[in-house]
């Protein structure tokens, strides 16, 4: 039972983010900003924390760069 709960928690935390290009300040820069945010996170964040909070970190980075995240 505990294994099932752990698996459900892990699967429920896996989600993709969607960037709204119309609401972003510079929609042409979305791909470049995603790559740069990913690189910054990999270089500056512990691998365990990155594994737990990658979605939150990438969303915050992209939001701080002026992009609108839908979900």
Question: How would you describe this structure to a colleague?
Answer:
With 71 residues, the chain is mostly helical. It has one domain. It is built from three helices and two strands. The chain has helices spanning 2-12, 30-44, 47-64, and strands spanning 19-20, 68-69. It has a two-stranded antiparallel sheet. α2 runs antiparallel to α3.
Series of secondary-structure elements, N-terminal to C-terminal:
HEHHE
Estimate percent helicity: 55-70%
Q: Uncertain spans, ≥5 residues at pLDDT below 50?
A: none
Give the DSSP E fraction (strand runs of 2 or more residues): 5-15%
The helix/strand class is mainly alpha
Arrangement of strands in the largest sheet: 1-2
Integer tally of domains: 1
Give the beta-strand count: 2
Q: Please tell me how large the radius of gyration is.
A: 14 Å
Overall pLDDT confidence: 82
Outline the biggest β-sheet.
Answer: 2 strands, antiparallel
Count of DSSP-assigned helices = 3
Distance between the termini: 30 Å
Shape: flat
Fold topology:
Blueprint: H1 2-12, E1 19-20, H2 30-44, H3 47-64, E2 68-69
Antiparallel strand pairs: 1-2
Helix pairs in contact: 2-3
Quick summary:
The chain has 71 residues and is mainly alpha-helical. It has helices at 2-12, 30-44, 47-64; strands spanning 19-20, 68-69.
Give descriptors for this structure.
71 residues, two-stranded antiparallel ribbon, 2 strands
